[in-house]
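Researcher: Here's the sequence for the chain we discussed earlier.
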Amino acid sequence: MKAIYKAVLRDIYFHKGRSFITFFALFLVIAFPIAMFSTSPSIENSIETNYEEYHLAQLDLFLGPVHEDLTDNISDTILDTIGTSPERIQARLNTNTKLNHEDTWYSVHTLGVDPNKSYDINEVEVIEGHFAMKEGEIAILDTFASHLNVSLGDSLTFNLNEKNATFSIVGLVKAINYLSYELIQEGAVYLNEADLRDLMGYPENYYNEVVIYFSENTTDDEIEESSIDVRDFLEDNHIPVYLVWHTRVVSYSAVLSDALSLTSSYLATSAILIIIIVGIVIFIITKRYAIEQRKQTGMLYSYGFSSKTIMLAFLLRTFILSIFAIIIGSVAGWNLLKLLSSFLGNLWGLMDVTAILTAGVLIEVIVSTFVVSLLFTFLAARENVSLTPYEAIRGKAKEFSQKLNFSSMLRFPMQLKVPMRNVSRSKMRSILTVLAFSGSIMLSFSLINTQTCLSATQEDYFSKLTWDVQSVFNTPDYSDSIYEELKENEAIVTSEPFLKLNVQFFEQVEQMTNLRGFLSNSTLNEIDLQEGTGFSEDIKNEVILSQYSADNLGYTVGDNCSFWLFDRQINVTIVGLSRTMDMPIAMYIQLETLEDIFGFMPINGMLVDVQDDELDDYMDDLNENPDVQFAIKKAKFVVQIRQVIASQTVIVNIMVVLGLIVSFLSIFSTTLIIVIEREREYALQRVFGFSTWQILTQIFLELMFLVVIALGLGYLSGNYLSIYWKNLVARNFFSVDTYFIWTDYVLLFIFALGGSLFSLFPEYRSLQSQCLAEGIKEE
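Model: Thanks. This is the structure I predict for it:
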């Protein structure tokens, strides 16, 4: 056995090219799955840890102006309900202000901070500067500051209720209740409470928000019961309740959980495919090695070594390379995990993301590596050990049997005949190369196709929005008085009122939806109906629910549900499911339905079609109007949606690159093996006058035969895998339509062509330095 060990180590050393390709393939199987399987759990664990460390509120009450003493009454109500008081409860000021920065308008969440009280619910992490704001100072979310391209010391001017106030930035922060601006397209700033109170016009000790943090031991059911009793208490005492928000159920963090779920599915599926594809690459390399070693196998037989010992030699070679790959790959995987976790954490604006690699994941990846590498090595070498000593020592390879009728190929030029002969005689390697490469193309093509179909779906969705400007009013009574005044603007071509506000479901109080009310004959907004018949001609209590909400709530077409609106329970029937991109929890209702219920048509905004040359001036006029909470152009609205979707599916781009790396590895390893196994053949061709370029052309054409077949299989299987990815997106966000996009096919063909050409460069160097006298020697 000692001689076997020495022979294996010597072979690994003297065949550096083949050993490195095998090592690199095993390295990929270790490093990437470690990172892929652990990224989502790491981020999810960090989020859960941060919830408690930074005390994310479980309940957020949006009320009319209430005195601070109300918090004691709410705390007592919760104590009576579940037998324990909330761990923390605070009254706060919270509103939306308008910001005009570099000719762009922003709606900004604006929160008040009392410097004399601890800010210990929905806490922040100071990235730069400080959080002890004096009057005239603000802290701003770091990602929002990056988007605005502002820093400490810069000033921003905010508008609210005809009041403009300029503040100096003294702090850049992250907040547990907000995510990255790029992910949610929502900016937030923190003001000294006195400044915000002045802007809002609130008297001392009056607030419009109460945040409640329960201890970790409080169950979800207890929180739900508390929210019901608190709402009943507030209504019994005639205190206006706009929303009781279960912030850990429906929130920015919940949106992130969906993005993580999608990311996790992408990573896990891609990791499994890569393991299989790399296993095939290992088989190709080992199969060629086994063929080369047939004479040596016969020699070992002649010296009395058993077939088990010879198989052990093959397995030992792979085992040693696997050990090195596991050691280096584990270190690389850990660093890649930290890089991926940090990248996604920063992209999504998370606080304190910590990479976690569990022993279970590590063992799972290591065991799968050994299984894949040793299994494919065994399959590749078993023909060697099944030979008789006589057959082995002759070194005959069954796969080199000629089956193509080359008499029918006499009219083909030699440069074409030779590649076709080589493909035919090396059938096993050719088939497995096609499988490995087509598998890589399948992964990359499916992901690229999913992304392009996602973009095309977005474009079709945007085409259904025919309005130019959407505005939301500062209306206390939801009457049409503001709309009647604003619609008289001469720049307006067409206008329609609409309603947009968050409401709670009656049966599932922890859930809420963004209610959208439109006219039954609306021409400025078309609902992207995916299921159901939609609204009937007669005005009835009907709604259309977003696909996302329907899946989360367990509703389907034909179900009945109830929600709260203006302290009234509204009973409706779901008549359709829609695709909604800007707000996944949307629900549509006809304004005429609400008019029948309330006796007036409640609205708080309008959609308008504006003359193109008047658009910018009209936008400025609207946002400078104190009756308008915020107005947004369709162009900016579209950009926001694109950025949100892109930030949620960013991991797909990483998977595309990884798939292309594995694809190139398949091409490169095949090219390397071609030259290694035919070194003597190429030397003889050069003796008979073949140039280096002619030989390289043969190799290139042989590769292209395989690549074209692999591309066809990759395109075909990639379309089916793309359906799987689209279903994942639909499950977490919205349905994606299927399109034929020819650029996807061209892009992968160009990559395959470029990869084939690039892989010839090392072979060119090898042929240039080849010694003909040594090359034509019989091995």
